[in-house]
Specification:
mainly alpha; single chain; about 100 residues; rod-shaped
Length: about 100
């Protein structure tokens, strides 16, 4: 469940809990609203937790340059190499790869 779904469930639960004044003998809409609020809050907290864990995991990684297989070149990588990588549209024809 994502953050958007959690916020939607919490909003729907709040409306059912506090804004609806309909009584039914079959189902209690205030209880359904409370359940939706709780489920939405739990989903929101879990989504935030997973986002923090994922961001923390990704923070230690550094992007690498993708080089085609073959002998290494004796020149340092240029800005174009770092910017475009192995995209053939931006390859310089006269440049050895």
């Amino acid at each position: 469940m994502g953050l958007g779904t959690s916020l939607f469930l919490m909003g729907a639960g709040a409306v059912l809990r506090w804004a609806v004044n309909v009584s039914s003998s079959v189902i209690d809409l205030h209880t359904v609203g409370l359940i939706l609020l709780i489920v939405g809050a739990i989903g929101f907290v879990l989504s935030l937790y997973w986002m923090v864990v994922y961001a923390d995991h990704r923070a230690g990684r550094t992007p690498t340059l993708d080089r085609p297989p073959g002998p290494p070149t004796n020149r340092p990588p240029t800005i174009e190499d770092q910017r475009y990588g192995d995209d053939p549209r931006y390859r310089d024809v006269g440049q050895p790869r």
